[in-house]
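Run log // design_07
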């Protein structure tokens, strides 16, 4: 009897164990099946739903400024060698030298190292100069190393007093030196240093060791062919070979004032025709400066003549310069015209604005029941998109005053309904909601749904416009907006 009971008990246990396994299997299957179906539905909805193209708001001008190639005209004087011999340079390319400052030396043989005694203070200045050069050195401009070598040697000579001369000493040197003056050519004065004759600059200015045939060019004698870069040739004057008296050895630019001559298209010439000044940005180093502007004709070519008062030394060795004419000065947030939409707002007088209790924000007092002796009211907090004064001018954080008389608040239409009665705080005066106006804006999609942001257009062309930054409920740089504003509705969830 007991054996039958044990057999029955085992069968019961097996049944419940099998049922448990079956239920466990089914629940797991149902869970994974439901998840799989959900994923399929999500993919189908995403694939069949219209997708919204976004645009990231950027800051800058409406269009890029035109980039042109300018021809630089300067007051330049080519200096010829005062004698025959091997050259030792003492001034760096682009270095400013005073009148009678040492530039180069000539000797009958390649110059040997001269012994010059310097004080500890003079040595410290030279060490400081070398440290500054080393810190700013760029391996791509290795040519600067040779220029710095010449400058350093010249500085040593000047520090030692070798090239310091009074007017009388300079005159005596002129009488005693050989081959210092060549008729009709500038050679500078000279002083003897051992077997070498050191020549100095005839004028104060910037030293350049190259010529290109444009040294005597002026605005009056320029031709259209002078703007052809393909035919431009530049002669390097730095050499370790022997030079002869009368050979060009360097040139000195004697004035900081200079002129840029910029060939213009007819369209660009018309765009800047009314200007008397213009800002120029040099693409070589990103520096900018303002210059006076006039437009002239050279042959059949319209040319912008831009006169500059400084900055020449940075580009002393460049004849042709790539520059950006800064004509688009209006800057702000750049957005596509296709993003712009208009939205309707209620106009409510500013003097009806009220402060809520318990630190609530700004809003209006709405009457719920005006028939009783004691009207029932409620405070409705409202988002104010824009405020204007009595003259219709927008009130900003900079222009806001405590005078609330006159002017309107632009309130979202979702806040009230036509016919709502608003009550002025601490007054019996009322206002019926109904008057409307429109604001231009775009739909921001940072949060995954369309949110209206108002804009104030500063400038516009066919494709883009520049809007003010910092407006009330406006845009910020790097916001994402809907590219086609008319394709969505406010608060619509966007994919």
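design_07 sequence
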């Amino acid at each position: 009897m007991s054996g039958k009971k044990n057999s029955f008990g085992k069968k019961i246990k097996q049944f419940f164990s099998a049922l448990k396994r079956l239920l466990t299997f089914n629940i797991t299957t149902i869970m994974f099946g439901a998840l799989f179906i959900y994923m399929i539905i999500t993919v189908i909805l995403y694939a069949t739903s219209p997708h919204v193209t976004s645009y990231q708001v950027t800051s800058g001008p409406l269009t890029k400024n035109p980039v042109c190639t300018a021809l630089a005209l300067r007051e330049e004087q080519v200096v010829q060698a005062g004698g025959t011999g091997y050259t030792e340079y003492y001034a760096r390319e682009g270095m400013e030298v005073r009148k009678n400052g040492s530039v180069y030396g000539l000797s009958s043989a390649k110059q040997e190292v001269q012994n010059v005694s310097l004080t500890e203070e003079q040595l410290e200045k030279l060490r400081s100069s070398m440290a500054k050069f080393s810190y700013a050195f760029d391996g791509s401009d290795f040519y600067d190393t040779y220029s710095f070598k010449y400058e350093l040697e010249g500085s040593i000579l000047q520090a030692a007093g070798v090239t310091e001369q009074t007017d009388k000493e300079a005159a005596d040197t002129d009488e005693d030196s050989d081959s210092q003056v060549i008729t009709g050519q500038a050679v500078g004065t000279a002083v003897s240093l051992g077997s070498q004759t050191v020549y100095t600059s005839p004028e104060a200015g910037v030293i350049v060791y190259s010529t290109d045939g444009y040294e005597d060019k002026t605005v009056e004698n320029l031709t259209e062919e002078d703007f052809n870069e393909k035919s431009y040739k530049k002669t390097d004057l730095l050499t370790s070979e022997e030079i002869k008296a009368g050979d060009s050895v360097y040139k000195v630019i004697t004035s900081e004032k200079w002129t840029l001559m910029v060939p213009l298209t007819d369209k660009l010439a018309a765009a800047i025709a009314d200007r008397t000044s213009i800002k120029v940005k040099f693409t070589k180093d990103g520096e900018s400066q303002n210059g006076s502007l006039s437009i002239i004709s050279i042959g059949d070519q319209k040319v912008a003549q831009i006169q500059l008062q400084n900055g020449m030394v940075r580009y002393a060795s460049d004849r042709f310069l790539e520059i950006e004419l800064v004509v688009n000065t209006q800057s702000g947030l750049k957005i596509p015209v296709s993003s712009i939409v208009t939205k309707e707002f209620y106009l409510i007088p500013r003097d009806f604005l009220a402060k809520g209790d318990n630190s609530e924000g700004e809003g209006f007092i709405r009457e719920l029941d005006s028939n009783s002796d004691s009207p029932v009211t409620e405070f409705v907090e409202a988002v104010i998109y824009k405020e204007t004064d009595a003259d219709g001018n927008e009130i900003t954080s900079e222009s806001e005053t405590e005078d609330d008389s006159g002017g309107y608040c632009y309130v979202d239409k979702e806040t009230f309904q036509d016919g709502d009665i608003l009550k002025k705080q601490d007054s019996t005066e009322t206002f019926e909601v109904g008057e409307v106006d429109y604001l231009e804006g775009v739909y921001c999609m940072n949060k995954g749904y369309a949110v209206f942001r108002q804009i104030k257009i500063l400038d516009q062309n066919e494709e883009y416009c520049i809007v003010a930054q910092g407006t009330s409920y406006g845009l910020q740089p790097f916001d994402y907006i809907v590219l086609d504003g008319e394709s969505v509705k406010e608060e619509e969830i966007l994919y």
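The chain has five helices and 33 strands.
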